[in-house]
Amino acid sequence: MIWRMDFDELIIMRRETALPVRRQLSHETPSWVPSGSLFFITIGCRPRHLNQLCNPETAAFVIGSVRHRHHRGDWFVRIFLLMPDHLHALIAFPPGRHMPDVVQAWKRYLARLYGIRWQRGFFDHRVRNIQAWDAKALYIRMNPVRAGLVKDARNWPYKWEPK
Asked: Do 153 and 140 form a contact (C-beta atoms < 8 A)?
């Protein structure tokens, strides 16, 4: 068997048939994870390498929806950054707000109103301590630099960090 990771699913390839057998990864937060934990989230667009997110009008709409849901209490964003074909965020979810439901409802809203085509699901990773928080925040901020989109991360216009 061959294993390959994609944004939102684990794909298992059988050597004999070379056909993918897809298995949806669980986004269920285990009961032992403290309420309000911070998660590193990546959400991809399809097709890859097509700029759907980083144009001023779309970005303003997407970031405005993130800010609105933050102030409404659906989630608590620490950093949110758009790339042309994906996004990264550090987000905590309040008690009673189920992460997969909140993220999927937001994706459906953007797809319906703005035509953004998302990959199925999303990637999440719980941030366990302040060192991991710092590392993930730096990774997110430096993503446009690594992609060659800007020389200085401070110049990337498609991000939001609440004060």
From this structure: no
**CATH code of domain 33-152:** 3.30.70.1290
**What radius of gyration, in Å, describes the C-alpha atoms of the chain?**
16
Phi, psi for residue 80 in degrees, rounded to 5: -140, 125
Give me the tens of pLDDT residue by residue for the chain, a chain 163 residues long: 344 444 444 444 445 555 555 455 444 554 434 556 899 999 999 999 999 999 999 999 999 999 999 999 999 999 999 999 999 999 999 998 889 999 999 999 999 999 999 999 999 999 999 999 999 999 999 999 999 999 999 999 999 999 8
Peptide bond into 95 cis (omega under 30): no
- What are the b/e assignments for 111-141, b being 16+ CB within 10 Å? eeeeebebbebbbbeebeeeeebeebbeebb
Domain ranges across the chain: 33-152
The residues, any chain, with a CB within 8 Å of residue 141's CB and separated by 6 or more, are 79, 81, 153, 156, 159
DSSP 97: -
